[in-house]
Amino acid sequence: MKCLIIAAGKGHRLRSKGDSKPLTPLFDIPLIERVIRCALEAGADDFFVVTGYKGEGVRVFLDRLTERLGIGITPIVNEDWEKENGLSVLKARDYLREPFLLLMADHLFDPSIVRKLIEFPLADGEIALGVDGNRSNPLVDLEDVTRVKTERGKIRDIGKNMNEYNGFDTGLFVCTPAIFDALERCAEETGDTSLSGAVRELATHGLANAVNINGQFWIDVDDPEAFRRAENALLANLRGKTNDGPIARFLNRPLSIRISRRLVNYPITPNQISLFSFLFSILAAGLLSLGSYSALFLGGIFAQFASVIDGCDGEVARLKFQTSDYGKWLDAVLDRYADAFLLFGLTWHAHADRTEGLVLFVGFLAIIGSFLLSYTADKYDHLMGRQIRQGKGLRVGRDIRVFIIFLGAVLNLPFWALLVIAVMMNLETIRRLIVCRDHG
Question: Where are the alpha helices (DSSP H) in 206-269?
């Protein structure tokens, strides 16, 4: 599907963040790039961007983005960018002769919204607008948002100063070329060249559909306060997309998100973060294997720190659109090496304290149980991941394992930490086998 993005306005209220609103970086990624990448993830594959204020800089950036992403991005110039946004849409009339997405360069969104719009059964001559019916949405600026009145899936009215409304205009559309005719009719008959005016024109004929997107993320990044809300929302969204265990959810993740918020502003890749976490784990393992309590204590601290940093690679990858199958696989491989070294270091220390074969046996069981738990994680998370994300189930994973190592080290109880890990990891592996069997 083709996608038209309006990026012509001046955006004077966001000037404190950047001279060109579409190029204003949010977590080191310009707003226009975030919109394009999310639309690309949702299914769009050919882009048209209407530029205006400081358009030359935007067009240069889009040329480079075309090369980086390997997609088609056609810039369209609007010399009348100071006028209403409907004129920017009209500039694309010669390029779009079939249904297309219509997005705003400063409206961020979850790709699932655009997927829903793409899948909407649009009839000839119709448009569909994503409408947020959550009137208490904390991300919405009530003084600036465009309001919508809907009835049985149809838009009845739209505007900024409406008193009777039941939803908000998200700025996310799927349109037929009928939108261009509506814009021209509206301009000729009333002098209104706004996009809302054209939607209102189509709504009078029952041709403007409302697609409910309640509860899904979107935000109009129009001023510094909205920019701050967008940052916080993107960071909060990181929590809901992982199958975290209790330690990761309540301890590691809050810390790692604070660190990731800083890391995204530097040219550090997720794979480099994975490697740094692994090297810190190796250092921790070396300290754990030494005989003194001070080394054991410090090793436990370093192991837990590495566990926190281990969450940053995925967070930075999602914030900067750098996720990859190889990165996930590399992180998993390095984690398995780190687990083996940490447990071996703890076993070595425990065996030095009590030179018994039982220590080696328990250490062996702890390592085997940890590996088997990791091996079963993929199928178990696929089956039970939704319940875990909703907080309806407990996930025993690496976060708990490393935290027990940390506690065993700082409390000077290395053998008992190994014993707890050995019992817990192997029992959880058996439980997963039963759960997966019972769920087919």
Answer: 224-239, 246-247, 253-263
The tens-digit pLDDT sequence of the chain (440 residues) is 999 999 999 988 998 998 899 999 999 999 999 999 999 999 999 999 999 999 999 999 999 999 999 999 999 999 999 999 999 999 999 999 999 999 999 999 999 999 999 999 999 999 999 999 999 999 999 999 999 999 999 999 999 989 999 999 999 999 999 999 999 999 999 999 999 999 999 999 999 999 999 889 999 999 999 999 999 999 998 876 567 888 999 999 999 999 999 999 999 999 999 999 999 999 999 999 998 999 999 999 999 999 999 999 999 999 999 999 999 999 999 999 999 999 999 999 999 988 789 999 999 999 999 999 999 988 888 887 766 666 666 788 999 999 999 999 999 999 999 999 999 999 999 999 998 888 86
Q: Are 105 and 31 in contact (CB under 8 A)?
A: yes
Reference 230, options 437, 20, 24; nearest CA is: 24
Burial per residue of 224-262, b for 16 or more beta-carbon CB atoms within 10 angstroms, e otherwise? eebbebbbeebbeebeeebbbbbbbbeebbebbbebbbe
For residues 184 and 90, the answer to whether their CB atoms sit within 8 Å is yes
- Where residue 123 falls (left for φ over 0; alpha for ψ -120 to 50; beta otherwise) is beta
What is the spatial distance between Cα 225 and Cα 234, in angstroms, rounded to a whole number? 14
Burial grade of 11 (CB within 10 A; 0-12, 13-18, 19 or more): buried
Please give the Cα distance from 76 to 88 (Å, whole number): 9
Distances (CA, A) of 14 to 25, 171, 323: 11, 18, 29
